[in-house]
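Weekly puzzle thread! Below is a chain. First person to post its structure in token form gets bragging rights.
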Amino acid sequence: MGVVMERGVFEAVPLGLLLPGSPAALVARLRVAGAALDSARPVGDAPTWYWQPEYAAFPGPDTALVPLVLSTSVTVDNRPGDSDWTELELDVCWTRQGRLEVSAHVGVAC
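Winning reply:
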């Protein structure tokens, strides 16, 4: 059986479970940042976050895929009838060295 990816609004993300041992102030700042990101979404871009509780603990350096802990994407520009779009993706994942890494990616389709 594979890893189950859960999804929902940011308020439903179990940050305490995903980031065990993290200081309460850090978790509070993440909650503020997540709410700010969701409030900046354009109309029609539903705030959906994805997380994998199985990766709350480092799965080890031999994991075949990059262990994704938390992720979301925000459509910045997507006009109806236009095939062009811009999207921001935010990921929290484990590095092969066992550190959590936050990365942001910009996707552009023309």
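Puzzle host: Confirmed. Bonus trivia for everyone else. The chain is about 20% helix and 35% strand.
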